[in-house]
Amino acid sequence: MEHQFRINLQGIIDLLSNNLYGESRVFIRELLQNGVDAIQARSQLIDKGADGSALGDSLRDNDINFGHLKIELIPGNSGSLPVLSFVDDGIGLTEEEVHRFLATIGQSSKTSNLWKARENFLGQFGIGLLSCFMVSEEIVVITRSARSEDAPTLEWKGRSDGTYKIRVLNYSIEPGTQVYLNCKPGCESMFELDELITNLVYYGGLLPYKIEVISGKKRQIINPEGIPWHQEFPSETKKIEYLLEYGKKTFDVDFIDAIPLRSKIGKVDGVAFVLPYAPTVAQNPTHRVYLKQMLLSEKAENLVPNWAFFVKCIINVNDLRPTASRESFYEDEKLQKTREAIGDNLRNYLFHLHRTQPDRLRRVIQLHNLSIKAMALENDDCFHMFMDLLTFETSKGNMTFGEYRRSTDQIRYVTQLDAFRQIAPVAAAQQIQILNAGYVYEEALLEKYQALHPDDELQKIQPSDLSHDLEDLSIEEREKSHHLAQLADVVLQPYHCMTQIRKFQPDDLPVLLTIDGEAEFRRDLDRSKEVANELWSSIMDHLSPAASISTYAQLCFNYRNPLVKRLISIRDKELLRRCIEMLYVQSLLLGHHPLDAKEMKLLNRGLLGLIEWGLNQIPMKDS
Amino acid sequence: MSSFLDQINQIIDQVNKLPNGNTKIGLLEEGIRLADLHQREDIGYELREELIEVSTFWGAPEKALLAFSWILAEYDRNPDQYDLHHLLWQYKWVIASLDDFPHISLQQIDQAMEDMSRRYKESGLGLRPLYKIACEHAMTRKDREKVKYFQKLWRSEKIDHGNDCSACERDSQVSYYLFVNDLERALKAAEPILSGKMKCGEVPHVTLPELLLPLLRKKEINLAVDYYLWAAKILNRDPDFIAEYGKLMTFLALTSNFKEGIKIFEKMLPAVLEAKALSRRFTFQLGASLLFHYLQDSGKDSISLRLPQELKLSGSKGLDKNGTETDKAKKIPSQNVQIQSLIDWIDNDLLHLAKLFDERNGTNAFRAEIDEAKNLKDLCCVIPLKKEED
Ligand SMILES: Nc1ncnc2c1ncn2[C@@H]1O[C@H](COP(=O)(O)OP(=O)(O)OP(=O)(O)O)[C@@H](O)[C@H]1O
Ligand SMILES: [Mg+2]
Q1: Residue A593 in contact with partner chain B when CB distance is under 8 A
Q2: Residue A49 above 90 pLDDT?
Q3: Is residue B52, in this structure, part of any structural domain at all?
C-alpha cells in the first residue's frame, strides 16, 4: 500500500519564513514583487486580447490605466497593533487559482502555463508570500480576477499554523489584490511609517510602476525618478555628474568616477563607481543588484568579475535566474558571459582613460594597484596596457614596472618578501636593482611578462646570488684576512653557515647574512624537530637525503667595515670566535629569523661572556 | 610589540587575497617565523594550519609535514586551546603523503598511522580515511591482497565528518576499479565526477588523467581526447599535479602529440626538480621517458628546450643537482638539447627513484612499472587533438 508523506505545515512555514530569508523586512520585497508580477500578468492578458480574443476587448477599454501599487499603513492605538495593506490593480485571482497557487506552498502561477512567458516575472518558487508570516500571524488576501467582468471578490485568510479559510464577499472591488498584515508583537518597527518608507525605497525605488505610501493624510511616491542611468542628459559629463551624485546619495561615498555598464546577454545595465580608496579583503566591495528593477541583493557576488575590487556597482538584471535565497544567481553559461561583458565594460573604461586622460589613469592605477594587477594577470590586453604602469617595490624604492625596466638592463627579482628584506639594502648600496615580487600576483605577472617577451631574460634570484656581485678581495687583503675566514668557517659550521669576505657598501654594515629557500627549509625543519614528538622528529630526519651545500646559510663579512677590520687584527682566537658567533646571531635576529636552541645558547653564552669580559676590565677593589 | 601584530595582520590580509601558490606559502612561512620569534604559539599555530592546507594542495607536502609535526606537539601540550577536529582533519593529508618520501621507512609510516588511528578512535571518529590511505598505499605497491583487504575495511566503515570529501572518496573508488582493470565499473563510478556533479579542489583533476591510458587501451579514442583536453585546461600548472602531468605526457606520447607533451615537460620540470615528494616525480618522468623515446623513434635527434639551470645534461651522466653555486644568477636560456642525453638523464633518474622506493617497500612494483611501460609501444597511434580554445 502506498502512503503519502505527511508534512507538518507549521514546521515548514517556520523553516521557510525564518531560515530561508535573512531578515524580516524581505516580506516587503516579496509583496512588491507579487504586485509587480500581477500587473505584468494583467498587461499580458490585454496584449493577448489584442490579437483576437474576445476577452481582451472588453477589458481593454475601461482598464487601460492600471499599474499602480498602494501601500497603506493604519497605525495602531492603545488597544490594537498596526495593520499594513498592499494593494495592486493587477490580474487578481479566481477561486480555483486561490486554491491552486495562493494556498499551495511551492506552487507558482508564474511557472505554470497559466501566465505564460515565465521570464517576465520576478517570482518563481511559490514561497515568497510565506515571508509575511515573519511579521504577521495571519495573512488576509482580498482579490478579484481581471479575467472576467463577473469575477467574484474573494477573501482568503491564511494562518501560520498552516490552515486557511476562503469565502466569497458580497461586494465587488476593482480587479486586483489586497494583502493585509496584522503586526505581530515584536515587529512594530516594520510597521512604523519612516521605516516602512525606507524599506520601500530600498527595495522598490527603481520599479517601473507607481508606488504610493499612504498613512492618514500623508501620501508619498516612492519611485518618482525611475532608473537614474536611463535618463536623458545633455552631455556625457552631466550624466557622470548626476550618477556620482546618485552614488553619493546611495552609499554616502565620494566616488572618483562612474562607469556605465551594459551587457546584452542577461539584459544587464547599471553603473560601476570607482572607489576613492583601495579596499582590503575584509571590506571587499559588494554590489547592489536589482532584478527587473526590484532590489534583489545588496551583496550579490558572482555577477561582477572578482578582480574588479576597485569598483562598487549598482546593476539591474533582466534575464538571469536568481537562486532561492536571492543572494546570488545560478552559475551558468549566461551568467559567465554576463560577467565577461561587465569585465569588458570596466576594461574599456580604463583603455579609454589611457587614450584620453593618461594622468587620471595613473592615479586610478596608483590607488587600485592590486585590482589592476589582478586584471592584468587575467587579460592579455590589460597586461600590455597596464604592466608598465603598475607599481612595484624595488631595492631603490617604489617605482612603476616601466620605470624599473628602463633603468636596468637586467630584470632581477626575488619572489619572497623575506629574501627581499635580506638583500635590498645591500643591493641598493651596490646600485644593483632588484625587484620584489613577494606580494600578491607579482610573481605570476613577471612570469607572464617573460612568456610574452621571450627575448628579455628575467632572472629569478636567491639571496645568496647577490654575494657574487660583491667586490672580491685583492690577494694581499685575502692573505691578511685569511685567519678570520678560516676560523669563521670552523666556528659556524655546526650552524650550517658558510662564510666569505667581500667588499661592499654600506660601509657600516659588518656582515650580510643570506639564507636561500633550501637553507630556510632546513632551519624550519630544525625548529619543528625541537618541538615535535619523537616519532615525528624521526620522520623529519628522513624527509630528504643528507643535507647538501644548498642548505647552508651564507655570512658575508664586509672588508670595508671598521669593525671587521679590527676583527682581522685580533689574534686572541677565543675572543675572535665569540665575536664571530655574536655577529652571526645578531644578523639572524636582524633578519627576523627565529633562533633554534643551539643558537639561543650561543646568544646567552655570548652575552654572559661579554659581561664577564667587561667586568674583568675593572680592577678589583681590595686585592 | 604592536608593530609585530601589524605585520602579522598585513600578511594575513595578503594571504587571504592570494590563490594557492608559492607567494602564499612564502608569506605564511614569513608569518610563522615572526610568530616564533615573538613566541606567539597561538598565532604560529593558526598560520601553520593554513600553511598545511596550502602546501598540501600546492605540491609541497614536506612543508605541510613540518608544520604538522609542530602543531601536533603544540596541541599535545595545550589541548584545550586548539581545535582537535581540525587537527585530525589535516592529519590524514599528512599521513597520505608519507608514502611519497622514499627515505621515510615503512615502520615509521606504520607508527604514524597507528598514532592517527588512536587519535581518531579516542575522539569517536571512524577509521574510513585511514583505510582509504592504506588502500592507496597498497595500490602503489601493487599489493593486491592488501588492496582488497583495506578496500573491504574501508567500505564497511561508517561515514562521518572526519572523512575525506565525497568527491575524493569517489575518485579513490575509481582508482580501485582501474587497479583491478575494470574500466567499465571505473567509468560508472566516475560518472558523477565526469558529469561535474562531484568536484573539489582535486577532483576531477586527478581522475581525468588516470582514465586516459585505460581508455586508449579500450580504443575509446574520442572520450580520451575529451578528457585530456579537459584535464589540460584545469591542472593550471599546480605542482600538486606533477604526477597527473606525467599521465598526460604518457597520453600525448602514445597519440604522437609531441609538441604538446614537450610543452608540459618544459613548463613543469622546474617544479618537478624542486619536489621532495619523489613518487610524483617518478610518474612524471615515466611519461617524459615515453615522450622522448617515441619522439626519437619518429626521427628526431635534438630539440630546443628551456631547461632549469640546475639541470646539467652531460653526455650520459645522471642528474647532478647542487654544487652549482658559483654560477651566476639563474638564467633559463633556450638551448639545443640532444634527445639522447635527455633520455639518458630521465631513464637514469627513473631507475634511481624506482630503486629507492622498491628498496623501502620491499617490492619491485616501481621497477615493474618501468618495464611494463616498454610494452605500451603497441598502443602508439596518431590522434590529432581538437583545437583548444584558450
Ligand atoms: N498580488 C498578487 N496578485 C495575484 N496573484 C498573486 C499575488 N500574490 C500572490 N499571488 C499568487 O500566489 C502565488 C504564490 O505567491 P508567492 O509569492 O508565494 O510565490 P511566487 O511569487 O509564485 O514565487 P516566489 O516564491 O518566487 O515569490 C503566486 O504564484 C500567484 O499566483
Ligand atoms: Mg512572489
Answers
A1: yes
A2: no
A3: yes
Domain containing B27 equals 1-82
Q: Is A355 on the interface with B (CB under 8 A)?
A: no
Q: What share of chain B is helix, strand, coil (3-state, %, to 5)?
A: 70, 5, 30
Residue of B17, B29, B325 lying closest to A549 (CB–CB): B325
* Ligand approaching nearest to the C-alpha of A93: 1
Closest Cα partner for A457 from B357, B334, B51? B334
User: Residue A592: left (phi > 0), alpha (psi -120 to 50), or beta?
Assistant: left
CA atoms within 13 A on the CB side of A204: 31
**Counted domains in chain B:** 2
A562-574 pLDDT tens trace: 999 999 999 899 9
Nearest to A525 among B23, B66, B98 (CB): B66
pLDDT for the residue numbered A546: 60
The alpha-carbon gap from A518 to the nearest alpha carbon of chain B, in Å, equals 10
Residue B160 lies in a domain: no
Is there a contact between B26 and A594 if contact means CB atoms under 8 Å apart? no
Lookup: cell for A395 = 631595492
For residue A595, the Cα-to-chain-centroid distance in whole angstroms is: 38
C-alpha cell at A149: 467582468
- Of B82, B98, B131, the domain-final residue: B82
Best residue among A27, A30, A31, A34 to mutate for probing ligand 1's pocket (most ligand atoms within 8 Å of CB) is A34
A532: amino acid identity, one letter: A
| Dist CA B212 CA B226 (whole Å) | 10
CB contact under 8 A, A532 and B26: no
Distance set, CA A61 to CA A49, A145, A224 (Å): 11, 17, 27
Domain termination site, one of B61, B82, B103: B82
A287 grid coordinates: 554590489
Instruction: For residue A33, give the ligand nearest its CA.
Output: 2
Kindly report, residue by residue over A274-322, the tens digit of the pLDDT.
999 988 655 678 899 999 999 988 887 789 988 888 999 999 999 988 8
The DSSP code for B239 is G
Which of A521, A548, A592 has its CB closest to that of B34?
A: A592
Whether B178 is in a domain gets the answer: no
pLDDT for position A59:
45
Cβ(B142)–Cβ(B368) below 8 Å: yes
Structural domain includes residue B250: yes
CB contact under 8 A, A438 and B112: no
Give me ligand 1 centre to Cα B83, in Å: 46
